[in-house]
Specification:
The protein is mainly beta and about 475 residues long. It has 3 domains: about 180 residues, no CATH class; about 90 residues, Immunoglobulins (Immunoglobulin-like, Sandwich), CATH 2.60.40.10; about 130 residues, Sandwich (Immunoglobulin-like). It is about 10% helix and about 45% strand. The strands form 6 sheets. Strands 2, 3, 4, 5, 6, 7, 8, 9, 10, 11, 12 and 13 form a 12-stranded antiparallel β-sheet that branches. The chain is flat. The termini are far apart.
């Protein structure tokens, strides 16, 4: 797992637990299906919500959401989905202590608004072996909510974690769950607007960032323990969760430590003793070792383990750490191009991160672009020490134009939509993004210019002909 929606580090639980021999088992989805309401025509929200059948999707991705139609106060469909995991390997005598659902989100749409949430709820299919269209109704609207995630808190193109509370795992067979949008779950109609939707799309096919259920379970022993900590392992500057990263907790008073590995970048949970101080140790090739102490208390706290890359110091230079994100939802943007005026160019990695070594006390202009779907962004820096630079790229839709700046290769950038003067609007947008004065803007998709010039040519020619006739 590359990242997750709630980026907290160490969370203390003020509940009483028993220390135990614990294990973590990761289950890959064994069966899945998306449904959308099988309507013959658009209908009112509650009618669509109460519909008893749904068309089963067959793609490698699944959707959860609601969609309005072009007819006032009507809805075209509601999408729900179900997931199934074979959890029969958990020993029957074990106690499940933590359950986490991990989804790889590939699309988020909130044009309908009204604060959409993803809800994890009950699902009891008619037949656990073969699901049918009638199962659309059996994803329990109005049932129990075991976990939620705000659409706006989800990150694109990476795993997002949803911790489940009060969720029952089947230790002798399959565990199933349903996914719904919150207005659908609570049967509460959102504020209607024409042809809009709230939906998320997640990868569901096995072998392509499939859904994962992480179950922690333990055999209870009489040794007392009165706290639990949950640790996230993050890369410094990019804040990306580190895949395959281990961490060890050891009491400073002595004794053996406990080591766990975050296989997907998921949160790691440890049973600890309240009042004790622990060493938190982590190491990774190419990164500084992490060695810090933390004292367990009964109150909740946040603690992130940040692993810092080893970068060789260079005389009279500083490191600029760039993170490129989506301005709309904060999702990390991979393969964004960052170009510096000193000639350096890099693409961001899968965590939207790239670093540069630049001269101290020298103004360096930077230019960040992701041609497919984003405005470019411009800025300047003058470093005297290492610094983090966050660049938020703005999405766009509509016609396009080509913009050039002295010394840069032309890139395609958007204009606005119909009815707005594109020259004025584009100029204003670029000024807001700190584009230097003197930018040359060349427009495509403006055929009326050539038509206007042709008309002037014809009128001029007719004038010459008329003038010649009078001289005769």
């Amino acid at each position: 797992m590359r990242y997750y929606s709630v980026a907290v580090g160490l969370i203390l639980a003020s509940i009483i637990l028993l220390s135990c021999a614990s294990a973590t088992t990761t289950y890959i989805v064994s069966y899945y299906s998306p449904w959308l309401s099988d309507l013959s025509s658009d209908d009112l929200f509650h009618a669509v919500h109460d519909y008893t059948r749904g068309s089963i999707g067959t793609t490698t991705t699944s959707y959860v959401g609601i969609y309005t139609s072009s007819t006032t106060n009507k809805y075209s469909n509601i999408q729900r989905s179900g997931l199934q995991f074979d959890t029969s390997s958990i020993p029957d005598g074990d106690t499940v202590t933590n359950v986490t659902l991990c989804l790889w989100i590939s699309e988020i749409e909130e044009t309908l608004g009204d604060t959409p949430d993803l809800i994890v709820t009950d699902f009891e299919p008619i037949d656990y072996v073969t699901w049918s269209s009638d199962d659309y109704y059996y994803i329990h609207w109005g049932g129990s909510s075991y976990g939620t995630a705000e659409f706006s808190a989800l990150s694109l193109n990476q795993y997002n974690n949803i911790t489940l509370f009060g969720f029952s795992v089947n230790k002798v067979g399959n565990t199933t769950l349903g996914l719904m949008e919150n207005h659908d779950f609570y049967n509460s109609e959102p504020a209607w607007s024409k042809s809009n939707n709230n939906h998320i799309r997640y990868q569901s096919a096995i072998g392509a960032h499939e859904p994962v259920l992480i179950v922690e379970h333990s055999t209870i022993t009489p040794t007392p323990s009165n706290a639990t900590i949950s640790i996230n392992l993050l890369e410094k500057y990019s804040n990306a969760a580190l895949v395959g990263q281990s961490v060890t907790l050891t009491p400073t008073t002595g004794g053996s430590g406990e080591t766990k590995t975050s296989t997907y970048g998921e949160t790691l949970h440890f049973d600890v003793i309240n009042g004790l101080t622990y060493w938190i140790n982590a190491s990774r090739s190419g990164y500084e070792d992490y060695n810090e102490t933390y004292t367990i208390t009964s109150s909740s706290g946040i603690y992130n383990v940040y692993m810092e890359r080893i970068l060789t110091p260079i005389a009279n230079h500083s490191y600029a750490h760039f993170s490129v994100v989506d301005q709309t939802n904060g999702g990390l943007i991979p393969n964004a191009e960052i170009r510096l005026s000193d000639g350096q160019t890099k693409l961001t990695n899968s965590a939207g991160y790239a670093w540069f070594s630049v001269n101290n006390s020298e103004q360096i202009n930077y230019y960040v672009s992701k041609p497919s779907g984003y405005w470019p962004a411009y800025g300047a820096m003058n470093l005297t020490a290492d610094e983090s630079i966050l660049v938020a790229l703005q999405r766009y839709t509509g016609p396009t134009a080509t913009a050039t700046m002295p010394g840069w290769t032309p890139v395609t950038v958007p204009t606005t939509g119909t009815g707005v003067d594109p020259v004025v609007t584009l100029s204003a947008q670029l000024r807001q993004q700190n584009v230097q004065e003197g930018m040359d803007v060349w427009y495509t998709n403006l055929p009326f210019i050539s038509q206007f010039l042709f008309l002037l040519f014809i009128i001029g020619g007719l004038g010459l002909m008329a003038g010649g006739t009078r001289r005769n």
